[in-house]
Amino acid sequence: MPDVKISPSILSADFSNLGKEIQNLEKAKADLIHIDVMDGHFVPNITIGPSVINKLRKYTSLPFDVHLMISPVHDFIKNFADAGADIITIHPEATNDLVSSIKKIKSYNKKVGVSLNPETSVDKALSILSMIDLVLIMSVNPGFGGQKFMEETLEKVKVLRTEIDKKKFKTQIEIDGGINFENAKLAKEAGVNILVSGTTIFKENGGNLKKNIHLLRTG
Fold it and tell me: Which of 40, 46, 75, 174 could join 194 via S-S bond, C-beta 3.0 to 4.6 A?
């Protein structure tokens, strides 16, 4: 089983010191920086917008893995592309035309992700796998950090892994929500390529970022 990439979620970082937190994550060997964007409408929380992402861009050369939990999402894609996102992940429920939104993200030379909430059918991603770079499986209901991992969402990972391997797609599978040292192993065994983790990376082992990232990657 190959090592997975680790995309720490800055939702669990110190928001008064985000630039330094991101630099510390890079030193700790993170592969990407996961940025959750919430609008208080699509999900019941509000986080940050493109202007903050733009300000953070200078602190690291790591790819910004931007998860847009906003609706309607289509008209905001350009703002996040211009702000410095490298991967833009959207929800099928947040756009009137998923294929059109995927094409719009690609038009800015950004990688495209599609995210599936726990209640969203895996079929929503299967039909567009050849068009996208990443499927983000939500293993909690989106909106807040620190929730309990929903193990049943791994069934979607297994279905996707089978289809991706069978058709030799390069699409990555990412998982986000309640990821800790124990269930990270289950996610990797199911076929995940990228682990998103916030609370575990920032809080476990006295906040030792390097140790926690290493344990998630190799444990």
Answer: 174
Q: Which of 31, 65, 133, 176 is catalytic?
A: 176
pTM exceeding the 0.70 threshold for the entire prediction: yes
Mean pLDDT by 10 residues, the chain (219 residues): 87 96 98 97 93 98 98 98 98 98 98 97 97 98 82 98 97 97 97 97 97 96
The active-site residue, picked from 31, 36, 39, 133, is 36
Residue 134 CB partners (closer than 8 Å, separation 6+): 87, 89, 111, 112, 113, 114, 171, 172, 173, 174, 194
d(CA 68, CA 90): 5
Based on the residue annotation, tell me whether 176 is a catalytic residue of this protein. yes
Q: Span 5-218: which CATH code? A: 3.20.20.70
